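User: I'm writing a short report section on ligand binding and want a predicted complex to refer to. Could you take this sequence and flavin-adenine dinucleotide and write out the structure as tokens? A short remark afterwards would be nice.
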Amino acid sequence: MHEPAFDVIVVGAGIAGASLAYMLLCQGLRVAVIEAGIAGGQGASALSGGIVRSYDPDPLLADLSAAGLALFQSWEALGLPGPSPYRASGCYWLSSGHIASATVAGSHMQYGRLDDFPALDFIDESRAAVNVLFEPGGGYGCPRAFCAQLVAECRRRGALVLEHTRVERISREGAGPLSVHCLASLLTTRQLALCTGSGLSAFLDIPESFSRSIPLLTVTSPDLQLKAPLIDTEHSTYFRPLNGQHFQCGSQRWAFLQESGPSPEEIREDALERLFAVLGRKVHVEVVSQGIAYDVYHSSFRPWIGHVDAEQQIMLASLYSGRGFKYALAGAVIGARKIMQALDKPYVWSAMDDHVSPRLENVFLPQSVVGLRHA
Ligand SMILES: Cc1cc2nc3c(=O)[nH]c(=O)nc-3n(C[C@H](O)[C@H](O)[C@H](O)COP(=O)(O)OP(=O)(O)OC[C@H]3O[C@@H](n4cnc5c(N)ncnc54)[C@H](O)[C@@H]3O)c2cc1C
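Assistant: Sure. The structure tokens for the complex follow:
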């Protein structure tokens, strides 16, 4: 039997695929990246607000987020490629209910009411009783730059990067290598990493998973200078600064993949209603643009980072449930460790690994063995 051309083929170059491919290159593997569009230019990563925070009411997700945040904070020190796509502006979390004290190691949190945070003076005083959590180390990044920089570095280190190339099918003969089919051609690999976001259902049927849209508006307002991202759980929305008076805000008018969703007008009205509810009053706002992208979710709202087949050849780094950017680097470290283990090769420990506890490896595992469609 011929030696497969690659150790790993990564399908999809959104934040999950771009970061996993980079970590695998750091391990000295022969890697190919196949992306239907351009790295970071499609899927959820193309429109993502890139808010990064470690606080999460789910303690396991808080641990994963804290690891992801720590890696973003150390971008230059870790020698990650290009200028850091992350900006530590701090991040606000607003809730009318109780905010559980976050116990994530190393993350510094400030708790209080609206009055305790003068930077939030654009929010109406009538909301004085709202609980605020401020995470000074949190912030936001640019997912497009993140993907482009990591994939460019993969190319520089010798990976085969095929953009504008769609994987049509994956097949396997017995216990042999996997074949990845693109048009009339096929590439063979020992390991496959599926990082296809909402495109996952073309390859795997994962129980309790679904693809849902995340709609957002880009707006401008002379009345609001946003310096840091803000998540308002009471009104189920978020604000993410862009530049000066421009910022993004979220709508909750979701659509499921392949279903006709709300109209652009409904999305706009919903996002603006939430925006005004957060502020407690109407301010002058102009809508600059509107976008909608799909991410893949699991009903547990936890990602899966692990092999999904009995043969331990098909790795999944997915189901990021609308919060993938903050998990991306930590998820990729976990994925790379598992792939090295499956290839029976020694894992090269690096400074990045110091931020990602081995304990996290055994938490976000696939809950079942999943068969490939059309194998
Ligand atoms: C509007 C919006 C705001 C968000 N805000 C935040 C935030 O503030 N903070 C945060 O942490 N997360 C946020 N998220 C979530 C986060 O962006 C996603 O979880 C993350 O981008 C998912 O990345 P991914 O790589 O798994 O998938 P995707 O980005 O969807 O990438 C999948 C890639 O696979 C490719 N692909 C699919 N099928 C194939 C195929 N057959 N062959 C080849 N290539 C294929 C696609 O072209 C695509 O490039 C947001 C998402 C959206 C949409």
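A remark for your report: Residues 324-342 form the longest helix (19 residues). The mean pLDDT is 94.
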